[in-house]
Automatic annotation (TrEMBL), chain A:
Swiss-Prot/TrEMBL GO biological process terms: transmembrane transport
Protein name: Binding-protein-dependent transport systems inner membrane component
Domain ABC transmembrane type-1: 65-256
Top-rank taxon: Bacteria
Pfam entry (one): BPD_transp_1
Annotated source species: Nostocoides japonicum T1-X7
From TrEMBL, chain B:
Any single GO CC term annotated in Swiss-Prot or TrEMBL for this entry: plasma membrane
Organism: Nostocoides japonicum T1-X7
Protein name (record): Binding-protein-dependent transport systems inner membrane component
One Pfam family from the record: BPD_transp_1
Annotated TM spans: 12-31, 71-94, 106-123, 155-177, 255-283
């Protein structure tokens, strides 16, 4: 099918309008981050990359970056392992009651954070887990497990039964079968899940904002939130800090576009 | 046979870690939410039983009513506008491989991967009194329209709504474009043979085929509008006055700054019920023929 010239022009015009709606604001943030003026007046003649260094130092970015990395790596690892094991139990091992347990996990995808936040906070506080990286890690894991089980169950159901059976015939134990037969086959699905979980955990603001009151324990998002209310007179540094916060996810997004978009679209029911 | 049965029970050991984490962080607190919502509690002293008192607040508390009305406005911006624009663009995009689409898609989808804090910082500056939006208006001779957008009683809420449109538009468009790429060309050919124009074709072929995608988009965007917190908290804190308050914002304030924990839990319970019903209804409707 050959597209007419008009169709082609219309296509690119639409795509360009939508793209510009994103590029102009984001581009403006970048220029503001490089602005030599405190009011972030865009000045193309005097770009000042040093803003990033100043923003890093003044917002104590290194500390918050480390907090975010610890929370994300911990939560993503725990969620991936726990969800994969559970999905294996629900599908391949056919644990009794799976028909009842799976919908129970699934319900969590639709419960919004607001529905559990108040008691969760008081419960964590009584365990001494507020303002704690471990506490936030556990909270993220518990919230992520629903989606993880949903995702990994669908993935494992697509694994051919014969593959598992032949491993059993070879005398492989359950854990061996999971680790050396199944995991290599479903690696692409695991990678997508890990990327999505990393993005959701890294980007979270509300949960961390409620759970963490100690400034030293704040992840980058909460730190940026409080930085942005303290440095209202230095818009250029605020913009630079904002750019720093989204760099890690943007880098991953640049390399794994397909996984991010497919993951968000197919896992779209997560609330 | 015996060994086989035992083998199946071993499956529970594999499920256990996930179930404990999920139970402790989601299930138990969800039940506790309902429990707390039946008490008047300041978070410190002994709670007093009030029955459904915190729920009748939804009828009597003027702030809560205003917050719910705001959700109506936000749903238009977060859900209806992006879905309509997304459908329009998906139907206009000719159905063949587009060179460079991957690059466009990367850009258009970008707001979905930006953290809400960065979105808030960005738009707060764009809307600022000396921000680029006012500068642009002055440059084209519309200086009379300039204002402190987020400090304006009339304009703050639609301005924040527009940010919602900005963040969900790419999601809707990519969802609908990928959905319409899967529609068999034969359906379009059949419609053409029947003499359908572009508009008829859209309503007869494209729209029905995209029903599952529209359902997903509705669930995501309406839930997003309903749960608006980060953007409002980081830009206006609900102000000026109460002109941008939302249920989530009231939940936060009641639970963690003015010590009306029972009422906060009740807001959370109602939001959870609304989200669950919304997902069930929309998915059910989309599956019907």
């Amino acid at each position: 099918m050959v597209a007419s010239r008009l169709e082609k022009i219309v296509n690119y015009a639409i795509l360009t309008i939508f793209a510009l709606a994103v590029v102009l604001p984001v581009g403006w943030l970048l220029l503001a981050a490089l602005s030599p003026q405190a009011n972030a007046g865009v000045d193309l003649t005097g770009l000042r990359p040093r803003n990033f260094v100043d923003a890093w130092v003044q917002s104590d970015f290194g500390r918050h970056l480390l907090n975010s990395l610890i929370i994300c790596l911990g939560a993503v690892t725990l969620t991936t392992v726990a969800s994969s094991l559970a999905a294996y139990g629900l599908t391949v091992l056919r644990a009794p009651g799976s028909k009842f347990l799976f919908p129970l996990f699934l319900a969590g995808i639709m419960i919004p954070l607001e529905g559990i936040l108040v008691p969760l906070y008081y419960q964590m506080r009584s365990l001494g887990l507020t303002s704690s990286l471990v506490g936030l890690m556990i909270a993220h894991t518990g919230l992520g497990v629903s989606f993880g089980v949903f995702w990994m169950r669908a993935t494992l159901l697509a694994v051919p039964r014969e593959l598992v059976e032949s491993a059993e015939l070879d005398g492989a134990g359950r854990m061996r079968t999971l680790l050396s037969i199944i995991v290599p086959v479903v690696r692409p699905a695991i990678i997508t899940m890990v990327l999505l979980m990393f993005m959701w955990t890294w980007n979270d603001y509300f949960l961390a904002f409620v759970m963490i009151n100690d400034p030293e324990k704040m992840p980058v998002t909460v730190a940026l939130g409080s930085f942005s209310t303290r440095y209202t007179q230095q818009l250029n540094l605020m913009s630079a800090a904002a750019v720093l916060v989204c760099v890690p996810v943007l880098v991953l997004y640049a390399f794994f576009q397909r996984q991010f978009i497919q993951g968000v679209l197919s896992g779209a029911l997560k609330g | 046979m015996h060994g086989k049965r035992r083998g199946r029970f071993v499956g529970w050991l594999y499920i256990l870690p996930a179930l404990l984490l999920y139970g402790g962080v989601v299930l138990y607190p969800a039940i506790q939410s309902v429990n707390i919502s039946l008490y008047s509690w300041d978070g410190v002293s002994t709670p007093t039983w009030v029955g459904l008192g915190n729920y009748t607040d939804f009828l009597s508390d003027p702030e809560l009513r205003i917050a719910i009305e705001h959700i109506g406005v936000l749903v238009v911006f977060y859900a209806f506008v992006p879905i309509l624009l997304g459908l329009l663009s998906a139907s206009l995009l000719a159905r063949h491989a587009r060179r460079g689409y991957a690059v466009y898609r990367w850009v258009i989808f970008l707001p979905q991967v930006l953290t809400s804090v960065v979105v808030a910082v960005l738009w707060k500056q764009l809307y600022g009194p000396d921000g680029p939006i006012n500068t642009a208006l002055e440059a084209v001779g519309l200086g009379a329209l300039t204002k402190d957008w987020l400090g304006d009683f009339t304009w703050a809420l639609p301005a924040l709504g527009l940010v919602g449109t900005w963040t969900t538009l790419g999601l809707c468009m990519v969802l609908f474009v990928s959905g319409s790429a899967a529609i068999p060309t034969s359906l379009y050919d059949a419609a053409r043979v029947d003499g359908a124009g572009a508009v008829r074709e859209f309503f007869a072929v494209t729209l029905p085929a995209l029903r599952p995608q529209i359902a997903v988009a509705l669930v995501l965007t309406v839930t997003g509008a309903l749960r608006t917190f980060d953007l409002v908290w980081l830009t206006t804190r609900g102000g000026p006055g109460t002109s941008t308050i939302t249920p989530s914002l009231l939940l936060y304030v009641k639970a963690f700054s003015i010590g009306d924990v029972g009422a906060a839990a009740a807001i959370g319970v109602v939001m959870a019920v609304v989200c669950l019903l919304l997902a069930l209804v929309i998915v059910r409707v989309s599956e019907q023929d």
